[in-house]
Amino acid sequence: MSVETVDHLTSVGVTEMEKAEHTVKDLDASKLTIELTNTPRPVPELNSKETWSCRACSDHMVTVTWLEGKGWQAPKIVPYGPLTMMPTASCLHYATQCFEGMKVYRGFDGKLRLFRPDKNCQRMVISSTRVSLPAFDPVELEKLIKALMKVDGATVPWPDLSTGWNPSGGGVPGLKLLASKNDTRAWPGGFGYAKVGANYGPAFVAAMEGRKKGYDQILWLFGPDYQVTEAGASNFFVVWQSKEGTRELITAPLDDKIILDGVTRRSVLELARTRFVAKSAYLSDAIKELNIIERTYTIAEVEEAQKEGRLIEAFVSGTAYFITPVSAISVHDEEFPINMDAGHTGHYAGMLKEWLMEIKYGKVDHEWGVVVDED
Protein backbone atom coordinates (compact mmCIF):
# COMPACT_ATOMS: atom_id res chain seq x y z
CA MET A 1 0.00 0.00 0.00
CA SER A 2 1.17 3.52 -0.70
CA VAL A 3 0.52 6.38 1.71
CA GLU A 4 0.27 9.94 0.42
CA THR A 5 -0.01 13.05 2.59
CA VAL A 6 -0.34 16.74 1.78
CA ASP A 7 2.26 17.68 4.38
CA HIS A 8 4.11 14.90 6.16
CA LEU A 9 5.04 17.24 9.01
CA THR A 10 1.44 17.79 10.09
CA SER A 11 1.14 14.26 11.46
CA VAL A 12 3.89 14.83 14.04
CA GLY A 13 2.53 14.74 17.57
CA VAL A 14 -0.61 12.78 16.74
CA THR A 15 -0.77 9.75 19.01
CA GLU A 16 -1.04 6.24 17.59
CA MET A 17 -4.47 5.83 19.19
CA GLU A 18 -5.81 9.10 17.76
CA LYS A 19 -4.55 8.18 14.32
CA ALA A 20 -6.00 4.69 14.58
CA GLU A 21 -9.41 6.04 15.61
CA HIS A 22 -9.35 8.46 12.69
CA THR A 23 -8.41 6.01 9.94
CA VAL A 24 -9.24 2.45 10.95
CA LYS A 25 -12.73 2.57 9.43
CA ASP A 26 -11.60 4.10 6.14
CA LEU A 27 -9.89 1.19 4.39
CA ASP A 28 -12.68 -0.59 2.51
CA ALA A 29 -11.93 -3.65 0.37
CA SER A 30 -15.46 -3.58 -1.09
CA LYS A 31 -14.45 -0.50 -3.12
CA LEU A 32 -11.70 -2.42 -4.92
CA THR A 33 -11.32 -1.90 -8.67
CA ILE A 34 -9.27 -4.17 -10.95
CA GLU A 35 -7.22 -3.31 -14.02
CA LEU A 36 -5.66 -6.40 -15.59
CA THR A 37 -2.35 -6.47 -17.45
CA ASN A 38 -2.29 -6.88 -21.22
CA THR A 39 0.90 -8.96 -21.05
CA PRO A 40 0.41 -11.80 -18.55
CA ARG A 41 3.51 -13.83 -17.76
CA PRO A 42 3.70 -17.64 -17.95
CA VAL A 43 3.57 -19.76 -14.82
CA PRO A 44 7.18 -20.38 -13.69
CA GLU A 45 8.46 -23.93 -13.32
CA LEU A 46 8.42 -25.24 -9.77
CA ASN A 47 12.19 -25.49 -9.28
CA SER A 48 13.30 -22.98 -11.89
CA LYS A 49 15.95 -20.34 -11.20
CA GLU A 50 13.19 -17.76 -11.49
CA THR A 51 11.20 -19.37 -8.68
CA TRP A 52 14.17 -19.83 -6.37
CA SER A 53 15.50 -16.32 -6.96
CA CYS A 54 12.49 -14.80 -5.15
CA ARG A 55 12.98 -11.77 -7.39
CA ALA A 56 10.32 -12.40 -10.02
CA CYS A 57 7.02 -10.64 -9.35
CA SER A 58 3.48 -11.55 -10.33
CA ASP A 59 1.50 -9.53 -12.84
CA HIS A 60 -0.38 -7.23 -10.46
CA MET A 61 -0.18 -5.29 -7.22
CA VAL A 62 -2.59 -3.57 -4.83
CA THR A 63 -2.29 0.18 -4.29
CA VAL A 64 -4.27 2.28 -1.84
CA THR A 65 -3.77 6.02 -1.38
CA TRP A 66 -4.25 7.77 1.97
CA LEU A 67 -4.99 11.51 1.92
CA GLU A 68 -4.81 13.76 4.94
CA GLY A 69 -8.29 14.83 5.96
CA LYS A 70 -9.86 12.23 3.66
CA GLY A 71 -8.32 8.96 4.80
CA TRP A 72 -8.03 5.84 2.68
CA GLN A 73 -9.16 6.06 -0.93
CA ALA A 74 -10.58 3.21 -3.03
CA PRO A 75 -8.07 0.35 -3.36
CA LYS A 76 -6.94 -0.73 -6.80
CA ILE A 77 -5.43 -3.84 -8.34
CA VAL A 78 -3.24 -2.64 -11.21
CA PRO A 79 -0.45 -4.09 -13.39
CA TYR A 80 2.78 -4.47 -11.45
CA GLY A 81 5.19 -1.59 -11.99
CA PRO A 82 7.31 1.14 -10.39
CA LEU A 83 5.94 3.59 -7.86
CA THR A 84 6.16 7.34 -8.41
CA MET A 85 7.05 9.59 -5.51
CA MET A 86 8.51 13.04 -4.92
CA PRO A 87 12.15 13.39 -3.82
CA THR A 88 10.84 15.09 -0.67
CA ALA A 89 8.75 12.06 0.34
CA SER A 90 9.18 11.50 4.07
CA CYS A 91 9.89 7.79 3.59
CA LEU A 92 13.15 8.75 1.83
CA HIS A 93 14.24 11.11 4.59
CA TYR A 94 12.68 9.91 7.84
CA ALA A 95 12.09 6.18 7.21
CA THR A 96 8.31 6.52 7.52
CA GLN A 97 7.68 3.20 5.84
CA CYS A 98 6.91 -0.37 6.81
CA PHE A 99 6.40 -3.74 5.16
CA GLU A 100 5.25 -7.30 5.73
CA GLY A 101 6.54 -10.66 4.58
CA MET A 102 4.28 -13.62 3.88
CA LYS A 103 4.00 -16.46 1.38
CA VAL A 104 1.23 -18.16 -0.56
CA TYR A 105 1.27 -21.93 -1.09
CA ARG A 106 -0.23 -24.19 -3.75
CA GLY A 107 -1.32 -27.27 -1.84
CA PHE A 108 -1.17 -30.88 -2.92
CA ASP A 109 -4.94 -30.64 -3.33
CA GLY A 110 -4.52 -27.78 -5.80
CA LYS A 111 -5.89 -25.15 -3.42
CA LEU A 112 -4.13 -21.86 -2.75
CA ARG A 113 -3.40 -21.13 0.91
CA LEU A 114 -2.11 -18.27 3.02
CA PHE A 115 -0.55 -19.10 6.38
CA ARG A 116 -2.16 -17.16 9.23
CA PRO A 117 -2.58 -13.97 7.18
CA ASP A 118 -4.55 -12.32 9.98
CA LYS A 119 -1.39 -12.21 12.10
CA ASN A 120 0.62 -10.51 9.36
CA CYS A 121 -2.12 -7.95 8.79
CA GLN A 122 -2.43 -7.19 12.50
CA ARG A 123 1.33 -6.78 12.75
CA MET A 124 1.40 -4.38 9.80
CA VAL A 125 -0.96 -2.07 11.69
CA ILE A 126 1.49 -2.12 14.61
CA SER A 127 4.41 -1.33 12.31
CA SER A 128 2.51 1.40 10.49
CA THR A 129 1.48 3.28 13.61
CA ARG A 130 4.98 2.89 15.12
CA VAL A 131 6.31 5.26 12.44
CA SER A 132 3.28 7.61 12.52
CA LEU A 133 1.65 6.20 9.40
CA PRO A 134 -2.16 5.83 9.36
CA ALA A 135 -3.78 2.75 10.81
CA PHE A 136 -6.32 0.58 9.02
CA ASP A 137 -8.58 -2.38 9.64
CA PRO A 138 -6.39 -5.51 9.28
CA VAL A 139 -9.43 -7.51 8.17
CA GLU A 140 -9.79 -5.23 5.14
CA LEU A 141 -6.10 -5.63 4.30
CA GLU A 142 -6.49 -9.42 4.41
CA LYS A 143 -9.42 -9.15 1.99
CA LEU A 144 -7.25 -7.17 -0.42
CA ILE A 145 -4.45 -9.73 -0.21
CA LYS A 146 -6.90 -12.52 -0.99
CA ALA A 147 -8.28 -10.51 -3.91
CA LEU A 148 -4.76 -10.13 -5.32
CA MET A 149 -4.15 -13.85 -4.89
CA LYS A 150 -7.39 -14.59 -6.71
CA VAL A 151 -6.12 -12.55 -9.67
CA ASP A 152 -2.50 -13.76 -9.64
CA GLY A 153 -2.85 -17.16 -8.00
CA ALA A 154 -2.33 -18.98 -11.28
CA THR A 155 1.33 -17.92 -11.21
CA VAL A 156 1.92 -20.02 -8.06
CA PRO A 157 3.25 -23.37 -9.36
CA TRP A 158 1.94 -26.71 -8.21
CA PRO A 159 4.12 -28.73 -5.85
CA ASP A 160 5.88 -31.81 -7.17
CA LEU A 161 3.18 -34.41 -6.54
CA SER A 162 5.56 -37.27 -7.30
CA THR A 163 8.07 -36.58 -4.54
CA GLY A 164 6.28 -34.81 -1.70
CA TRP A 165 8.78 -33.89 1.02
CA ASN A 166 10.76 -35.29 3.89
CA PRO A 167 11.92 -32.36 6.02
CA SER A 168 13.69 -34.44 8.63
CA GLY A 169 15.28 -36.96 6.28
CA GLY A 170 16.99 -34.88 3.60
CA GLY A 171 20.19 -32.98 4.20
CA VAL A 172 19.58 -29.42 5.40
CA PRO A 173 22.70 -27.25 5.60
CA GLY A 174 22.73 -25.62 9.01
CA LEU A 175 23.32 -21.91 9.50
CA LYS A 176 26.58 -20.69 10.98
CA LEU A 177 26.03 -17.70 13.26
CA LEU A 178 28.46 -15.02 14.37
CA ALA A 179 27.55 -13.65 17.79
CA SER A 180 28.07 -9.89 17.64
CA LYS A 181 29.17 -8.18 20.84
CA ASN A 182 29.93 -4.88 19.10
CA ASP A 183 26.73 -4.18 17.15
CA THR A 184 23.24 -3.84 18.62
CA ARG A 185 20.21 -4.30 16.39
CA ALA A 186 17.45 -3.30 18.82
CA TRP A 187 16.89 -2.05 22.35
CA PRO A 188 14.02 -1.52 24.84
CA GLY A 189 11.86 1.42 23.88
CA GLY A 190 12.96 1.18 20.26
CA PHE A 191 11.28 -0.46 17.29
CA GLY A 192 12.80 -3.95 17.10
CA TYR A 193 9.29 -5.40 17.27
CA ALA A 194 8.11 -3.60 14.11
CA LYS A 195 8.78 -4.41 10.46
CA VAL A 196 10.09 -0.99 9.50
CA GLY A 197 12.97 -0.35 7.14
CA ALA A 198 15.10 1.34 9.79
CA ASN A 199 15.22 -1.99 11.59
CA TYR A 200 17.04 -3.73 8.76
CA GLY A 201 19.27 -1.39 6.74
CA PRO A 202 21.74 -0.63 9.57
CA ALA A 203 22.11 -4.37 10.23
CA PHE A 204 23.49 -5.06 6.75
CA VAL A 205 26.97 -3.79 7.65
CA ALA A 206 27.46 -6.40 10.39
CA ALA A 207 25.85 -9.08 8.21
CA MET A 208 28.29 -8.42 5.36
CA GLU A 209 31.24 -8.53 7.73
CA GLY A 210 29.96 -11.84 9.05
CA ARG A 211 29.71 -13.31 5.56
CA LYS A 212 33.31 -12.32 4.84
CA LYS A 213 34.26 -14.50 7.81
CA GLY A 214 32.17 -17.42 6.54
CA TYR A 215 29.02 -16.93 8.63
CA ASP A 216 25.46 -16.88 7.33
CA GLN A 217 23.87 -14.52 9.84
CA ILE A 218 24.58 -12.41 12.90
CA LEU A 219 23.35 -13.63 16.27
CA TRP A 220 22.29 -10.33 17.79
CA LEU A 221 23.11 -9.74 21.46
CA PHE A 222 21.98 -6.99 23.79
CA GLY A 223 23.20 -5.41 27.01
CA PRO A 224 26.32 -5.79 29.16
CA ASP A 225 25.40 -9.42 29.86
CA TYR A 226 25.00 -10.17 26.12
CA GLN A 227 21.40 -11.34 26.04
CA VAL A 228 20.49 -13.45 23.00
CA THR A 229 17.81 -11.79 20.86
CA GLU A 230 17.51 -12.72 17.17
CA ALA A 231 19.56 -14.30 14.37
CA GLY A 232 19.68 -12.00 11.37
CA ALA A 233 16.03 -11.11 10.83
CA SER A 234 14.82 -14.43 12.25
CA ASN A 235 13.70 -15.56 15.68
CA PHE A 236 16.17 -17.84 17.47
CA PHE A 237 15.50 -20.96 19.56
CA VAL A 238 17.64 -23.35 21.57
CA VAL A 239 16.75 -26.75 22.98
CA TRP A 240 18.81 -27.78 25.96
CA GLN A 241 18.71 -29.85 29.10
CA SER A 242 18.57 -27.69 32.18
CA LYS A 243 20.96 -28.24 35.07
CA GLU A 244 18.01 -29.82 36.88
CA GLY A 245 17.66 -32.41 34.10
CA THR A 246 14.53 -31.20 32.27
CA ARG A 247 14.46 -30.47 28.54
CA GLU A 248 13.59 -26.90 27.61
CA LEU A 249 12.82 -24.95 24.46
CA ILE A 250 14.12 -21.43 25.08
CA THR A 251 13.52 -18.24 23.12
CA ALA A 252 13.71 -14.53 23.91
CA PRO A 253 10.53 -12.86 25.26
CA LEU A 254 8.43 -10.17 23.61
CA ASP A 255 8.00 -8.07 26.77
CA ASP A 256 10.69 -5.47 26.09
CA LYS A 257 9.81 -5.19 22.37
CA ILE A 258 13.36 -5.95 21.25
CA ILE A 259 12.39 -8.82 18.96
CA LEU A 260 9.76 -9.34 16.31
CA ASP A 261 6.57 -11.22 17.15
CA GLY A 262 7.18 -13.62 14.27
CA VAL A 263 4.23 -15.53 12.87
CA THR A 264 6.37 -18.66 12.53
CA ARG A 265 7.74 -18.06 16.04
CA ARG A 266 4.23 -17.84 17.43
CA SER A 267 3.24 -21.02 15.57
CA VAL A 268 6.29 -22.92 16.81
CA LEU A 269 5.49 -22.03 20.42
CA GLU A 270 1.81 -22.90 20.10
CA LEU A 271 2.52 -26.29 18.50
CA ALA A 272 5.31 -27.08 20.96
CA ARG A 273 3.11 -26.26 23.96
CA THR A 274 0.42 -28.68 22.81
CA ARG A 275 2.47 -31.51 21.28
CA PHE A 276 5.76 -31.78 23.20
CA VAL A 277 3.90 -32.60 26.40
CA ALA A 278 3.70 -35.63 28.67
CA LYS A 279 1.93 -38.66 27.16
CA SER A 280 1.74 -36.99 23.75
CA ALA A 281 1.51 -39.32 20.75
CA TYR A 282 4.33 -37.30 19.16
CA LEU A 283 6.96 -38.25 21.75
CA SER A 284 9.64 -40.85 21.02
CA ASP A 285 13.12 -41.87 22.13
CA ALA A 286 14.49 -38.77 20.36
CA ILE A 287 11.51 -36.44 20.92
CA LYS A 288 10.99 -36.07 24.65
CA GLU A 289 8.75 -33.76 26.67
CA LEU A 290 9.76 -30.08 26.60
CA ASN A 291 9.17 -27.15 28.90
CA ILE A 292 8.46 -24.15 26.66
CA ILE A 293 10.05 -21.01 28.10
CA GLU A 294 10.13 -17.41 26.87
CA ARG A 295 12.72 -15.59 28.95
CA THR A 296 15.83 -13.45 28.81
CA TYR A 297 18.95 -15.60 28.49
CA THR A 298 22.58 -14.91 27.65
CA ILE A 299 25.11 -16.21 25.17
CA ALA A 300 27.16 -17.37 28.18
CA GLU A 301 24.32 -19.75 29.10
CA VAL A 302 24.35 -21.19 25.58
CA GLU A 303 28.14 -21.62 25.68
CA GLU A 304 27.95 -23.29 29.09
CA ALA A 305 25.25 -25.71 27.93
CA GLN A 306 27.35 -26.65 24.90
CA LYS A 307 30.51 -27.22 26.94
CA GLU A 308 28.60 -29.34 29.47
CA GLY A 309 26.94 -31.44 26.76
CA ARG A 310 23.46 -30.11 27.54
CA LEU A 311 22.85 -28.21 24.28
CA ILE A 312 20.60 -30.43 22.18
CA GLU A 313 19.89 -28.26 19.12
CA ALA A 314 19.26 -24.72 17.90
CA PHE A 315 17.25 -23.31 15.01
CA VAL A 316 15.82 -20.12 13.56
CA SER A 317 12.31 -19.38 12.35
CA GLY A 318 10.87 -16.81 9.98
CA THR A 319 9.16 -16.28 6.65
CA ALA A 320 12.43 -16.34 4.70
CA TYR A 321 14.26 -19.17 6.47
CA PHE A 322 11.06 -20.96 7.62
CA ILE A 323 12.65 -23.34 10.15
CA THR A 324 16.38 -23.84 9.63
CA PRO A 325 18.81 -25.59 11.98
CA VAL A 326 21.91 -23.87 13.34
CA SER A 327 25.12 -25.87 13.01
CA ALA A 328 27.62 -23.55 14.73
CA ILE A 329 27.98 -20.30 16.68
CA SER A 330 31.11 -18.19 16.96
CA VAL A 331 31.66 -16.20 20.16
CA HIS A 332 34.89 -14.26 20.85
CA ASP A 333 36.36 -15.79 17.66
CA GLU A 334 35.80 -19.25 19.12
CA GLU A 335 33.37 -21.44 17.19
CA PHE A 336 31.44 -24.27 18.78
CA PRO A 337 29.36 -26.84 16.87
CA ILE A 338 25.71 -27.65 17.52
CA ASN A 339 24.20 -31.10 17.04
CA MET A 340 22.26 -31.59 13.79
CA ASP A 341 21.28 -35.29 13.92
CA ALA A 342 23.85 -36.77 11.52
CA GLY A 343 24.15 -33.50 9.63
CA HIS A 344 20.48 -33.12 8.76
CA THR A 345 18.46 -31.18 11.30
CA GLY A 346 17.61 -31.38 14.95
CA HIS A 347 14.77 -33.74 15.89
CA TYR A 348 12.55 -31.00 17.31
CA ALA A 349 13.16 -28.54 14.46
CA GLY A 350 12.50 -31.29 11.93
CA MET A 351 9.23 -32.25 13.58
CA LEU A 352 8.04 -28.65 13.85
CA LYS A 353 8.92 -28.00 10.22
CA GLU A 354 6.99 -31.08 9.11
CA TRP A 355 3.88 -30.08 11.08
CA LEU A 356 3.90 -26.58 9.63
CA MET A 357 4.45 -27.79 6.07
CA GLU A 358 1.49 -30.14 6.42
CA ILE A 359 -0.67 -27.14 7.30
CA LYS A 360 0.72 -24.85 4.62
CA TYR A 361 0.33 -27.38 1.83
CA GLY A 362 -3.04 -28.72 2.95
CA LYS A 363 -1.98 -32.21 4.00
CA VAL A 364 -3.95 -31.59 7.19
CA ASP A 365 -7.01 -29.42 7.62
CA HIS A 366 -6.11 -26.59 9.99
CA GLU A 367 -7.44 -23.11 10.70
CA TRP A 368 -3.98 -21.63 10.12
CA GLY A 369 -4.05 -22.68 6.46
CA VAL A 370 -6.47 -20.13 4.98
CA VAL A 371 -7.78 -21.22 1.58
CA VAL A 372 -8.03 -18.53 -1.11
CA ASP A 373 -11.14 -18.76 -3.29
CA GLU A 374 -9.91 -18.65 -6.89
CA ASP A 375 -13.34 -19.08 -8.55
Automatic annotation (TrEMBL):
Q: What is its EC number?
A: 2.6.1.42
What is the reaction catalyzed? L-valine + 2-oxoglutarate = 3-methyl-2-oxobutanoate + L-glutamate; L-leucine + 2-oxoglutarate = 4-methyl-2-oxopentanoate + L-glutamate; L-isoleucine + 2-oxoglutarate = (S)-3-methyl-2-oxopentanoate + L-glutamate
Cofactor(s) needed by this chain: pyridoxal 5'-phosphate
| Record-level Gene Ontology MF annotations | L-isoleucine-2-oxoglutarate transaminase activity; L-leucine-2-oxoglutarate transaminase activity; L-valine-2-oxoglutarate transaminase activity
Q: Which domain of life is it from?
A: Eukaryota
Specify whether Transferase is a keyword of the entry.
Answer: yes
What Pfam family is a match, any one? Aminotran_4
Sites where N6-(pyridoxal phosphate)lysine occurs are at: 195
- How is this protein annotated for GO cellular component? mitochondrion
Provide a GO biological process annotation: L-valine biosynthetic process
Which SUPFAM superfamilies does this entry report, sorted A to Z? D-aminoacid aminotransferase-like PLP-dependent enzymes
Kind of enzyme, top EC level?
transferase
Q: Which Gene3D superfamilies match?
A: 3.30.470.10, D-amino Acid Aminotransferase, subunit A, domain 2
Q: Which UniProt keywords apply?
A: Amino-acid biosynthesis, Aminotransferase, Branched-chain amino acid biosynthesis, Pyridoxal phosphate, Transferase
Q: Which InterPro entries match?
A: Aminotrans_IV (IPR001544), Aminotrans_IV_CS (IPR018300), Aminotransferase-like (IPR036038), B_amino_transII (IPR005786), BCAT-like_C (IPR043132), BCAT-like_N (IPR043131)
* Recorded family membership: Belongs to the class-IV pyridoxal-phosphate-dependent aminotransferase family.
**Name of the protein in its database record:** Branched-chain-amino-acid aminotransferase
